[in-house]
Design brief:
seven-stranded mixed beta sheet; alpha/beta; 6 helices; about 15% strand; globular
Length: about 240
């Protein structure tokens, strides 16, 4: 199996898989140390799709894992005869599609009462493939951004470890389509309207990044933008819409 992504979540997944005796054929990340625990080859690729041939030849079991991965898989990796690509997403799909760093913020602003992690097949869309499994946890009324984000990362790790044996055995199958529930997408453009939430009651806890400020520069920049006064008569935001 091949691993694509970055950070501690990827490294822990690689270490866990190798410790259970699963073949780790290649680790695609920015840091060569991510592959050390598995004794696996490492590939630093700004665009993993440009190395589709390398991945296809290296993969001995036809499984590619995506963890904390910001790259988007495209053809030819997504061909029907290509490897099975599975993503562990920090968020519940399809409610929290897109960047987890942004999705957590808006989950708090919108009053969501639960968050979690989702294992899904990767298709040509962004976080739109069939869901294999979930790991849910409640969001308390006083929970802050950094607390929910940390629980989300832990949920991703727990979900990967839970589903790994079934995926390796070929017995992990979709339990539902992502389109079976209301969908929302949270990309960088969602941050353009963050200023309209500055008076929202949940704004202080939704923007309390804590130690994640260093890992989410897109949020830090958005929070430092000068506040713009609303136009006379402009509607003030509430907690209704879940779409981002």
């Amino acid at each position: 199996m091949i691993f694509v992504g970055e950070g501690a979540l990827l490294r822990r997944a690689v270490t866990h898989a190798a410790g259970l005796g699963h073949p780790v054929d290649l680790v695609c990340s920015a840091d060569p140390l991510d592959a050390v625990a598995a004794g696996a080859p490492h590939l630093a690729a700004a665009d993993v799709n440009a190395h589709a041939g390398t991945l296809t030849r290296a993969c001995t079991d036809g499984i590619v894992w995506s963890l904390n991965n910001k790259q988007i898989f495209r053809e030819p990796l997504l061909r029907a005869d290509g490897p099975r690509i599975l993503n562990i997403h920090n968020g519940l799909l399809p409610r929290h599609r897109g960047l987890p760093s942004v999705a957590v913020l808006f989950a708090l602003l919108h009053g969501d009462t639960e968050y979690g992690a989702t294992a899904h097949e990767v298709d040509a869309g962004i976080d739109t493939g069939p869901v294999l499994a979930e790991h849910r946890f409640p969001i308390g009324p006083e929970d802050r951004y950094h607390q929910v984000m940390l629980r989300g990362i832990r949920a991703c790790q727990a979900l990967f470890e839970r589903i790994l044996p079934a995926v390796a055995a070929g017995s992990a199958h979709p339990v539902r389509a992502v389109t079976a529930e209301p969908s929302a997408y949270y990309g960088l453009r969602a941050l353009d309207r963050l200023d309209t939430y500055r008076d929202h009651p949940a704004y202080p806890r939704a923007t309390d990044l804590g130690p994640f400020a260093a890992h989410a520069p897109e949020l830090t920049r958005a929070l430092l933008r000068p506040s713009s006064a609303p136009e006379p008569g402009a509607a003030q935001p509430g907690g209704g819409s879940r779409h981002g």
